[in-house]
Amino acid sequence: MIISIIGAISKKLNLFFLLAAGMVFSTAVLSQAESPKEEDYFKIIKVPAPQGIILEVGGICALPNGDLGIATRRGDVYIIENPTTSHPYYRKFATGMHEVLGLAYKDGALYCAQRGELTKLMDLNMDGKADVYETIYAWPITGNYHEYSYGPKVAADGSFFVTLNCTCPPFWWHMQSAVPWRGWALNIKENGEMTPWASGMRSPCGISMIDDELFYTDNQGDWVGSGSIMPVRKGAFMGHPASLVWSGMPNSPLKLTREQVYAIEPPPPVIFNKDGQEVQPRNEDAGKFITEFEAKKSIPELQLPAVWLPHGILGVSNSEIVKIPEGVFGPFQGQLLVCDQGQSMIDRVFMEKVNGEYQGAAWAFRSGFQSGIVRLAWGTDGSLFTGETNRGWGSAGNASEGLQRLVWYNEVPFEMRAIRAMPDGFEIEFTKPVNKKNAEDLASYSVESFIYKYQGVYGSPPVNPEKCPVKGVLVSKDGMKARIIVDHLRRYYIHTITLNGILEEGTSYSLVHPTAYYTLNNIPDGMKLSLSGVSTHRSSVGMKSNATSKNPSARSAALNKSVTYDEVKPLLQKNTCLSCHNADTKQVGPSYKEIAKRKYSITELVQLIHHPQPGHWPDYSTPMPAMPQVPPADARKIAIWIQSLQK
Amino acid sequence: MKPDYLKICILCIGFTQWILQLQAQDKIPLTGLGFFQDPPSSWSIVGDVNSGFEDKAVLSLSTGTGILANLTDMSHPGHDILTKQLYGGMDIELDYLMAPGSNSGIYLQGRYEVQLRDSWGTVLPTSADNGGIYERWNENKPDGQKGYDGHAPRQNVSRAPGTWQHMKISFQAPRFNGAGQKTGNARMLRVELNGVPVQENIELSGPTRGALGNDEVPRGPLRLQGDHGSVAFRNIKITSFDNLPPALVNLKYAVYKGKYEEEIKFLSVPPESSGTTEILSTNITRFPTEFLIQYKGVLQIKSPGSYHFSMNLSGGRGSLKINNQGVIFLGQGSGRGSGNITLPVGEFPFDLIYSKLVVWDQPMIGVEVAGPGIRSFKLSDANVGADHEDPILVSADVNTLLRSFSDIDTFKVTHAVNVGSPMKVHYTYDLDKGMIVQVWRGDFLDVSSMWHGRGDGTAHPQGVVLQFGRPLLAINDLGSSGMQWSSDTSGSGFRPKGYIMDETDRPAFQYFIYRNRVKDKTTVLPNSKGIQREISLEKSTDHLYLRLATAKNIETLSNGVYLLDDKTYYLRMDDTGQEKPVIRAVDGQMEIIVQIHQSVRYSILF
Question: Which whole-number Å values give the CA distances from A219 to A207, A305, A315, in the listed order?
Fold first, then answer.
């Protein structure tokens, strides 16, 4: 009889579940292996383009009649009719412009930012080609390649916003603003009237308009520890001091100077090698540092990130942000999606306002695009167009450019839908009901927090990491929400919330994306939960731990033993190596096999993980950031494995 | 100010470079005809020539010296002229001026002709056009096939008749063995017309049509054609390359593994590999990543004199010793260097060391040598080093427009619009000034540096370029024609408005200046002779001037036609609304401006 019961039940549940009854951990492991992935819900479709057209998308715009406008870095604008079908039709609408990096539509005309100006394109004789290329506003440029100009985005009053990249000197780790208004956002009216809007930008490719509010993403670099989403308000300073050289101009909306910023955080020292050449200053692993929120106490104009996008996990060069329209992508409607040019991926962001300031959670959403994504736009059928180019930088994916679209299968994935800050922790809303037993087990939740430095050195490792003990959880009756009580919340910090133990009710699937990154700019006031009213049960086994092993015996074991890919893969993932490298092919960084050919010693490899030498790889345009946070034991294992690839 | 073609065309120069010649150039003295054999009567020494571009084949001469002119017409047939001196391999560089419709040629050794012709405006040049290698002729072949082996220039980069054009030819004579049998064909190593390479390394199977003789010879006279039209020459410079080149023999190599940053300390360890080699190369795959390689050989010198060695390497240090004397030393980071040594005829030890220190660079070493009457050539393997990028070219098969950065002399135009035409005449417009900053004839643009990797945003014109100096506002508000042109835009209210395309995709530029709206449109002249520009103002005014050009000198040829910059190009006033242009001296140059009331139309013929 038992056998028949087993037989019956095994049809519905995994056999192992029976054998390991009560061992939540094993269940979690196997369910994770079987659980659906992001590609089971969202499909990436290539948009066919006639062979020979170089897309290198710099701008996309959905037109009111359902056509799609595409602007390319080669200076062309194409209008694609029926872009969601299998036979889209391309017309070359405009041509000959200088690196177009944005496209917008307003009142029958297209507008685009090219290197030196905001241009209005009009087809007056209706032959399908623009006849008027009107200069709305031209700004000064020096001819430095890095002075890219992005946009426009159209404001509610019909005016335009553009954002301007900094000037890149030979010492690329120290961006400059050689002419007005590099590093600024500008507001430009149809009649050409220009108002400088905000300063402190470094690489503002991700200029975005969300519900008539201007936002942007910046990219890791000097003064920018990691990418993030920031609102752009008039008179604000985004953090990079180079652009402040123009704050003294008569029409500048802020008076902040570089010197005032340097008084709070001095620029890194200029250092030279033995040949007398200036070299990149390195991140100091030890020593004092400040964070942006600390700096803000003395620099009120400083805009803090609304939502951080942790570097190497949620992107390395974030770009455009779009809002998911109503009725699109099911439970995610109304939320934000932000793309990345290096990891060729899209993140999802839930943003809320607490005490009048933006904050929120970010998750990985979809990877696997063929090239770095720079622009996003919605199709009429609710699919999302991705405009891609990686020329000059390299990216994940096997193509140097592309136009693809993301389509939803109309099936709801099991995900965290939203995370809201609570006075005593977080409330996590799910897309489908959770298994109550797991949800009420504190071992299913893990919360840690960290932040980035505010420094002139390129990028920042995660710093001040600490655990945030989860003290209790209240699961809603319908299983759609779990409110966790979390100790040691730190304002402004990024809280990594990992729910490896949470399973879907019924299927026992794991969450498609079990890790969220919540930027806690404000802790809301309100009622705290009492511990007596929530579950405080914690099972003994616990779920897969993200904790780093500081076990000395593990270290010495690594010294001697060879390492297989299966053993090293979780380390590569955890330490975000796989965001830029893989074993065989060039991505953002060289393949591990290429690295192995260099015959670095184990010690050298460990050293290079912590303190990379971008000069060793002159063919690669994106410098590897310092990663002192990789535990020595992990680095050693990775080094041993890389060495083993030498053949 | 003479436009600096060389600087621009350095970008067009391929692997072979014009290096400093060790032999001093012989400039043919043109104070008399003594350099030439029995000079025919159509030739004379003069001080100036003029032909303009309109009258057929008329060349007017002025007394003086420095110019060799050939004047012919129906009643005065001309003849070719030959030098007394005979030449083998040589470089010849000269200026020449064609009368309209004229035809001439430079015959190396009197036998191999580079065609000189008024090919102004020809879109698709043949071997009979300016810069072509003239055809050979076989009378025994059927009609239509008698001419063969003519080689067209890569592009038509001719200037207008009546202007000075520049020709540079590197010629290699045929080679013969001791018995007088030909062992190697003659070659046009390089032909550069007006700064643009139009022929490179073309093998000549035999004398071209109308040669001095159908035999081929080790030495022959230079011959200039004079029987087919009026032509003038000046600044003729000849360099002989007749001597026997050196040879590197008995070459042995030894490779030492390791990083040798200091002076040679490797001799105490045995080499990792060693052997003999036919050619000095780094293409031996078994090298470790950090290594030192030493080449030892014998340099056979067959012509005594001063030898110039140059070396380039990547990722390390190197040294070259000849006859136990240090000739070149390259420290780390130098990359390239050179040195001289004087040697008699004989055999000398050759010792080269290359120490590769930088792990991630591809091994690469190159050694070149030039000597007395010996053209520079590569002693080492040419097939080393990293791959070269594909060029990226934009052609204007239809009217084509491309914005870019543009290098005009020492200035960088950041809002430049390049406008190309299938008629092979193109221009660049500076949107910040309303000024045309350059025009060119030939192919459109090389954008390799713009679209490889991140690019530098700069496009380069491909043909014969005429640049117009420092970009300044095209229009100024002057109280009188004596007032100085402003050096910036302050006070002008200048505001660019972009451009409007016509039905054939040609732009009409628009901008505001001095509270007036300007329309500025340029079209290509019929027969590709240049451009015509029309500038019109919305409101008629009395105090605005248009700056037409600035040049070393400006000759007034006839009413409304001017020849500028030591006879480089023409300006023609087509409609100035009764205003006469004013020529004035500014900072050692001549400037020509004209008042603009409602509109001005003028042409640049080049």
Answer: 12, 12, 9
